[in-house]
Write a structure and sequence with these properties.
With about 170 residues, the chain is of the alpha/beta class. It has one domain (about 15-150): Rossmann fold (3-Layer(aba) Sandwich). Helices cover about 35% and strands about 20% of the residues. It has helices spanning about 5, 25-35, 40-45, 55-60, 80-85, 100-110, 110-120, and strands at about 15-20, 40, 65-70, 90-95, 125-135, 140-150. A hairpin with a 5-residue loop joins β5 and β6. α2 runs parallel beside α6 and α4 packs parallel to α5 (about 80-85).
């Protein structure tokens, strides 16, 4: 006899594991963990070594972890973008001049939109930003927005045209 759980499709999202870049230090992953997220820290895998963005992003992608960084330059480095797309990486870049605690709170505040993006692009590479948004009424909230997906990306995108801040999503 089947259990009820065997006959109903699961509507809960798959367990997400985040990988925090070295630039997020120890405070951000600690706060994210304290709030129930599964987090792998850069220093737990690379100790204090300073590995390239391509190396840690490839490592995270191959483990199906979702990268979180504060390094906005990643979006403009064609070699790193190429690695993210080829490895089906998923990366969120936290934007703004913020303390560690504020970065963590921004990620937590954007968790609903982060989960939506991950679900929508399950097996597709993407780069997204997490930032503060202000609504028409002046209310500030955290939001995640996709900047580039694997479908939009082409390895021949000219340097300097990748992931401009003023575009909602890049078009091919």
């Amino acid at each position: 006899m089947k259990k009820p759980s065997d006959t109903k499709p699961s509507h809960s999202p798959p367990e997400l594991t985040f990988f925090t870049d070295r630039d997020l230090g120890k405070i951000v992953p600690r706060i994210l963990r304290e709030n129930g997220l599964t987090v792998e820290r850069y220093c737990d895998h690379f100790q204090e070594k300073n590995v390239s963005d391509v190396e840690w992003i490839t490592y995270a992608a191959r483990n199906r972890w979702i990268g979180i960084s504060h390094d906005n330059n990643i979006r403009r480095d064609p070699i790193t973008v190429n690695a993210i797309m080829k490895e089906s990486g998923r990366l969120f870049i936290v934007r703004g001049v913020l303390t560690g605690r504020e970065k963590a709170q921004l990620v937590l505040g954007a968790l609903k939109s982060i989960s939506h993006i991950v679900a929508k692009h399950q097996d597709e590479a993407f780069i997204a930003v997490v930032k503060r948004e202000t609504t028409t009424g002046g209310v500030v909230h955290a939001e995640a927005q996709v900047r580039l997906t694997g479908k939009q990306w082409t390895p021949r995108m000219p340097f300097g045209t990748v992931l401009r801040d003023d575009e909602e999503e890049l078009l091919p």
